[in-house]
Design goal:
It is globular and about 65 Å long. The protein contains 12 helices and 12 strands. It has helices spanning 8-29, 36-49, 60-69, 88-95, 114-120, 140-150, 206-215, 237-246, 250-268, 297-306, 336-344, 356-369, and strands at 53-57, 78-81, 99-102, 125-129, 153-157, 165-168, 171-174, 181-185, 199-203, 283-284, 290-293, 345-348. A hairpin with a 2-residue loop joins strand 6 (165-168) and strand 7 (171-174). Bound molecules: pyridoxal-5'-phosphate (PLP).
């Protein structure tokens, strides 16, 4: 049996007509740069995120880079984030001229620990980037007041969490709604994936929104006049057309992911070796990844592979131990919770179209391995 981690061909089969119509409209018009689909998608994503503004850009990485650039960091300025995330979160801090400061995560949710943030703040701290990892939001009700007390920006890395919600002080809030801004990725494997790269920033702040619109167009609001040096980081019109066609399906896809996740969790719950993801009761998880924690993880992955079952390790080497950040002075043991997660997590296939018998095969293979 071949059980892939993700099957985008299955998704495409279900939405082919909608997507092809949308793409062909752009092709017939030959209007590829900043066509009307970009603004339409921005309006739709702002509505979904309950923000006043949304700014499309070239990738989820650039969605982090642009607001970090808008902070005008000086050499030595620090941005606090988690080491248990995709590399882009910290790479963008470096590329914006800042120094990444890593703090450890919560052992249950794998999201950044608010207590650890507080302890890491210095006079040079400028911003915090909590990552809503795997599709579950970080503890914003604790993080936002810390930022407020110290005058720091909060950039929510919501690359894996479009449409995720959290109850913050008794009210449901969307990913990206409460921070200084939220950043999204449309990388094909995300819950809302483009046919290539794409990203977006959502924010309530009109001044920041204007600055980001300039920064994505070489720093100029008017053509050939550059107020500052920016980037070429537009969202392709073709990608915006694909995403607009897919967006009406996003809620049902995330529900299907959650249904698959619930089936796994039921099968694994109470098992002495397999620890299913802990969902904070304040969260609606969108399961970009279904990630379990297990002993003998690498052996399990090898066994799954033998059986034709796809899986992935997100993430095998925490960012504080990456060779490129060695000059920051972290060591093995600096972030024990992240380091332990990196050796014991494994993500299983959870995509919306996953056939039931494929999921049964995954469950059987995992349970048999630990029998
Ligand atoms: C947490 C996180 N941040 C940032 C990114 C970067 O997004 P992109 O690949 O669209 O540049 C990703 C995804 O790949 C991600 O998972």
């Amino acid at each position: 049996m071949n059980v892939p981690l993700l099957d985008l061909v299955a998704q495409y089969g279900n939405i082919k007509d909608d997507v092809e119509r949308a793409v062909m409209a752009v092709i017939r018009r030959q209007g590829f740069i900043m066509g009307p689909e970009v603004a339409q998608l921005e309006a739709e994503v702002a509505k979904l995120s309950r923000t006043r503004h949304a700014i499309g850009c070239a990738s989820g990485t650039d969605a982090l880079l642009l607001p970090l650039r808008a902070l005008d960091l000086e050499p030595g300025d620090e941005v606090i984030t988690t080491p248990f995330t995709f590399f882009a979160t910290a790479g963008a801090i470096h590329n914006a001229g800042g120094r990444p400061v890593f703090v450890d995560i919560d052992a249950a949710t794998y999201n950044i620990s608010p207590q650890a943030i507080e302890a890491a703040i210095t006079p040079r701290t400028r911003a915090i980037i909590p990552v809503h990892l795997f599709g579950q939001m970080a503890a914003l009700e604790a993080i936002l007041p810390i930022a407020e007390r110290h005058g720091l920006a909060v950039i929510e890395d919501a690359a894996q969490a479009i449409g995720a919600r959290r109850q913050v002080n008794g009210e449901w809030r969307m990913a990206g709604e409460l921070g200084t801004c939220g950043t999204l990725s449309f990388f094909p494997s995300k819950n809302l994936g483009a046919f290539g790269d794409g990203g977006m920033i959502v924010t309530q702040d009109p001044v920041l929104a204007e600055r980001l619109r300039r920064l994505r167009l070489h720093g100029g609001a008017k053509q050939y006049v550059h107020d500052e040096v920016g980037f070429n980081s537009r969202l392709d019109t073709l990608q915006a057309a694909v995403l607009l066609a897919k967006l009406p399906y996003l809620a049902e896809w995330s529900t299907a992911r959650a249904r698959n996740a619930a089936r796994y969790t039921e099968a694994f719950s109470g098992h002495p070796a397999v620890c299913p993801p802990h969902v904070d009761p304040a969260n609606t998880h969108i399961y970009n990844q279904y990630t379990i924690r297990v002993p003998r993880r690498d052996e399990l992955q090898a066994r799954l592979k033998e059986r034709g079952i796809g899986s992935a390790i997100y993430y095998p080497l925490p960012l504080h131990l990456q060779p490129c950040f060695s000059r920051l002075g972290y060591r093995q043991g600096s972030m024990p919770v992240s380091e332990s997660a990196a050796t014991s997590v494994i993500s299983l296939p959870v995509y919306p179209e996953m056939p039931r018998d494929h999921q049964d095969a995954v469950i059987e293979a995992v349970l048999e391995f630990y029998a």
